[in-house]
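This part of the workshop introduces the protein records we will be handling. A record pairs a protein's sequence with a compact description of its fold. Comparing a sequence with its C-alpha cells is the quickest way to learn the format. To make this concrete, we reproduce a full record directly below:
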Amino acid sequence: QVQLVESGGGLVQTGGSLRLSCTTSRGTLSRVAVAWFHQGPGKERTFVAGIPWTYNNKLYADSKSVKDRFTISRDTAENTVFLQMNSLKPEDTGVYYCAGGSRLATVARGFPEYWGQGTQVTVSS
C-alpha cells in the first residue's frame, strides 16, 4: 500500500513559480506512475501532467498553457515526483492532487490506485 503526500503549495503572485512535491509516507514510488491533477474552486478535478515509473514518456494535459509553463519530473533517489509551475496565473488557483498507479494511462484518466490529500495553490492577481 502506498500513501502519497504532497507539499509545496502556497500563496504566490501572478507570474511567480512554485514547485510541488509528491512523495510517500508509506511505500515507495519505484514502480508507480504518478500524475498531478488540479481542482479549481467549484470545478472538477482535471489532469495536468503525468510520468511513468519507467522510461521518460511524460504526459501533459492537452493545453498549450500547461505545456509551456509546467514540467513534471521524477527523482528516484529522493522518492519524489515534482511539478514545476512557472508564470503562474490566477486560474491556476486550486488544490493540486498527486495520484499514482501501475499504468499512467489509467491514472491520467482519473482512475488511480492512490490519491494524496492535496496541496493548496493560490495565485493572487
Observations:
- The chain is about 10% helix and 50% strand.
- The two ends are 40 Å apart (CA to CA).
